[in-house]
Each structure stands twice: as C-alpha cells, then as structure tokens.
Amino acid sequence: MAVAPQLPLAFKTFRITRFHLMREVEGLTPEQMLHIPEGRDDNILWNVGHLLCSLSRLTYVFSGYDLPIPKAYLGLFGKDTTATAWDAAPDMDEVMGHFISLPDKIEQDYVAGKFTDYTSLQIVPGDNITSVEEAVAFHCFHEGLHIGKILTLKEAMGLPVKGG
Prior knowledge:
By secondary structure, this protein is mainly alpha-helical. It has one domain (about 30-155): Four Helix Bundle (Hemerythrin (Met), subunit A), CATH 1.20.120. The chain is built from six helices and two strands, in the order H-H-H-H-H-E-E-H. The chain has helices spanning about 10-25, 30-35, 45-60, 70-75, 90-110, 130-155, and strands at about 120-125, 125-130. It has a two-stranded antiparallel sheet with strand order 1-2. Helix 1 (about 10-25) packs parallel to helix 6 (about 130-155). The longest helix is centred in the C-terminal third of the chain and has 25 residues, at about 130-155. The relative contact order is 0.20.
C-alpha cells in the first residue's frame, strides 16, 4: 500500500483557515450573502469570490497554468473591484462550488507534481513569493483578513458570528 505524500504545513494551515471561513458563511441566505451595508462597497459573496480569484492566481497562474475558474470572475471579484459595481449578482451556488472545490484541486495537483515552476511575485518591498507553498502560506494571511471583513459584514446585519 502506497503512503500518501505529506503536504507542507501551509496546506494544513490553509485547511484550518478555510474551516473557520466556512463556519461563518454556512447557512447564510442569498440575501445575507449579497447584502451591502451602508458605507460599504462589498458583501460576503464578494469577499468569497475575491479569495477564490486570489488563490487561483497565486497557485495556478503564477505557476504557468490557466486560471482554473471562469475568467469573468476577475472582473467581478479581482483586485480593485467592488460588489456595488455589479450589474447583476453572480450565481452564488456556482461561486461557492468553485470556492469549496478549489482547495482539493490544489492539493491533488500539488501531490501530482504539477507546481514545479513559479513566477516570483513581490507582495511587499524586499520580499517575494517564490513557490506555490509560499503562495498558499500567504493566502492564509489574506483569507484571515477577509474572514475579519466577513465578520464585520455579519455584525452589520445583526447576525451572530462564530469567531475562533
């Protein structure tokens, strides 16, 4: 019997981070996912979609592969986009489906040896992400920031937060 390869710590950290995010969004209605509180330009679905786009780019695009999600998502959830600019709300079930399935796809592709090359990406002056392992580790930080945003959006709607 073959032993499954052990994934780097960043992947475990990512699974833990994603668990906490999913706890906060599970059971929310479409209205709650799409609600934009006064004074904000985002909603919970935008934050989820933004993380989906970011992780897709950090792992696949910077490793030389095509985006594993619809390219139209970049115009809805990418950097410098807002939910207030949407002409129509994206299909929430489709976005959530990609969001939920992407971690498994990344892990499977990692185990298969797909992520051998990586185009260095400067995140802060003097420090770059140089591998998919570093990309996943950075994404944990990024996802944590957006968990905080999701918590404030829930609080603005008077919804309970589950927290850490």
